Task: structure prediction
Amino acid sequence: MMDRLMALLALVVLAGFLGILAWKVPRVDLIAIIGITLALALWDFLGHARRRSR
Result:
């Protein structure tokens, strides 16, 4: 349980950092890369959560 909370906290901190970056440097290509990065991090988080519940 604690592992999931720490992983979720890390995901939120990453999203916050990348959100600030996207806000300060509003370029379309950078925002696309940030979106892909967040999608991959979320996919990894959900993949690990599913594997542990089995």
User: Anything to note?
Assistant: The radius of gyration is 13 Å. The first helix runs from residue 2 to 24.
